[in-house]
Amino acid sequence: MDGQAPNLQNLIEILKHELALHKQLFDVLKAERAALVDVDLKQIREVTFAKEGLLADIQREEVRRRRWVEGLSDYSGIAAAELSAEKIAEVFGGLEREQLVNLRNGLRYLLLQARDANLENQKLTENALRESQLMKENALGMGGDRAATYGPRGNMGMAKDRGSRIITREA
User: Fold this and answer.
1) Distance between CA 26 and CA 96 in Å, rounded?
2) What is the mean pLDDT of each run of 10 residues along the chain (171 residues)?
């Protein structure tokens, strides 16, 4: 910076934009969950691209925010690591103090919601992959234990062939 105090309104605009992006991300994560449950591959692909784009936008805004904080650090002499939203609001906030705190709280809330939604989607995906692998192994006859079948004399025994099994007890 050129010795001039960074404009606090710029930080507020950056945070507002980040908040809007995180709201969009949360909506995309809800759509992703619906697509995973419906096993809609086209929709899964679309929400994946949308999520990647939003994450790139969020990262760009975060870089802008960090540059603003570095400028304030240079101007104030306070280490950038110590310049949290609370500290900025406390020291430099003035009239914008409440707005900064509200934006920070909104971002924290949305970050937690997005993280939880993403973890839930990850669990759904992992379960689907595990089930798909099990179905593949059963279809190819590579399942761990062989299914019990009736023998020629009507007594129960283990199947002797390693042929394909489509239906198992797991299904």
Assistant:
1) 27
2) 73 94 96 91 94 96 94 89 83 79 92 94 90 81 58 60 50 46
Q: What pLDDT shows up at residue 156? A: 62
Q: What residues contact 59, with CB distance under 8 A and at least 6 apart?
A: none
Q: What tokens were used for 113?
A: 């919601």
Residue 56 tokens read as 């790139």
Which single residue is written with the structure tokens 């992992």? 126
Tens-place pLDDT, residues 69-83: 999 899 888 898 888
**Distance between CA 167 and CA 171 in Å, rounded?**
6
Tokens of 51: 């999520």
Tell me the β-bridge partners of 149. Answer: 157
Structure token pair of residue 68: 């603003």
Chain-wide mean pLDDT for the chain? 83
Written as six digits, the tokens of 155 are 């007594």
Q: What pLDDT score was predicted for residue 97?
A: 82
Residues 93-99: contacts with CB under 8 Å, at least 24 apart: 93/8, 94/8, 96/8, 96/9, 96/12, 99/12
Q: How many CB atoms within 10 Å of residue 44?
A: 18
Sign (positive or negative) of CA dihedral 26, 111, 101, 10: negative
Q: Which two tokens stand for residue 59?
A: 């990262």
